[in-house]
């Protein structure tokens, strides 16, 4: 298979239910966070999906918090099409949305840090504080 078999397009509100269904295995595998139908209705406004033969094979959204910050969310690519540049193209399209809106920084929280580094992301920007996380449910 090659990338010409896959089409990437902007998501639309009618895609929300299908996207939630597509993302469910990634949620179960704890690769992405679960989203409600209401959250997905908002996310698809600035999202892209990859499809092949009428089936979704990739998805990414960008949530814009302010003119300073946006976040790439729900980045998922089906195993059978990984390594073809689809994830990178989904990320690039999200970054282009941010650039066109004048957003200063785009962040992505992911267990795939190595992949995101190939897309130009780094753990911190120069002279920037780092985010630290705490799970209150894990405390003894």
Explain the overall architecture.
The protein has 140 residues and is α+β, with helices and mostly antiparallel strands. The chain has one domain (3-138): Gcn5-related N-acetyltransferase (GNAT) (Aminopeptidase), CATH 3.40.630.30. Helices cover 29% and strands 24% of the residues. It has a 5-stranded mixed sheet. Helix 3 (86-100) links the parallel strand 4 and strand 5 (105-108). The radius of gyration is 15 Å and the shape is globular. 29% of the residues are buried.
Task: Describe the protein's topology.
Blueprint: E1 7-10, H1 16-28, H2 37-43, E2 47-52, E3 55-64, E4 69-77, H3 86-100, E5 105-108, H4 113-118
Parallel strand pairs: 4-5
Antiparallel strand pairs: 1-2, 2-3, 3-4
Oligomer: single chain
Mean pLDDT comes to 87
Instruction: Provide the CATH top-level class.
Output: Alpha Beta
The number of distinct structural domains comes to 1
Task: Choose one word for the global shape.
Answer: globular
Largest sheet: 5 strands, mixed
What proportion of the residues form beta strands (DSSP E)? 15-25%
Record keyword descriptors for this entry.
Aminopeptidase; 140 residues; 4 helices; single chain; alpha+beta; five-stranded mixed β-sheet
Summarize the structure.
By secondary structure, the protein is of the alpha+beta class. The chain is built from 4 helices and 5 strands; from the N terminus they run βααβββαβα.
